[in-house]
Design a protein that fits this description.
Blueprint: H1 2-12, H2 14-29, H3 33-62, H4 66-94, H5 96-128
């Protein structure tokens, strides 16, 4: 059982690996580091918030309160979208190139994050099937 847990954990955090891989790309391409730094900081903070809210959702689900679990999931997703969008906007107002670089990085990270969440759920539900 430890194998699927590790692969699920790795898949769930693949966006953080892509974020780390983005640093050399920004450095080598000469992209504005302000965009990377702000987006990386906000993305990491949101990852911590998502982890805490996911624990609350799992606790609510364990107690049989599906409505509360769905609420925590919705709050997590919407919070991430709004906070990242606000960060990109503020960076873009400061420096247009940095804002564009942050927006592209955010788009890549969101795509990978959402795909990883879907795949993680699929693998977890396939593991639960008899």
């Amino acid at each position: 059982m430890a194998g699927p847990g590790r692969s699920s954990l790795a898949l769930r955090n693949v966006d953080l690996l892509v974020l780390a891989a983005g640093l050399p790309v920004f450095l080598l391409a000469g992209l504005p580091m302000l965009g990377y730094a702000v987006l990386a900081g906000v993305w990491l903070a949101q990852a911590v918030v998502e982890y805490m809210f996911e624990r609350r959702a799992n606790r609510a689900l364990g107690e049989g309160n599906r409505q509360a679990a769905m609420g925590w999931t919705a709050v997590t997703t919407l919070t991430r979208v709004w906070v990242i969008a606000l960060a990109v906007l503020l960076v873009g107002l400061q420096d247009r190139e940095a804002g564009l670089a942050a927006a592209v990085l955010a788009m890549v990270l969101f795509t990978i994050h959402l795909a990883a969440r879907v795949l993680t759920r699929l693998f977890e539900s396939a593991g639960d099937a008899p």
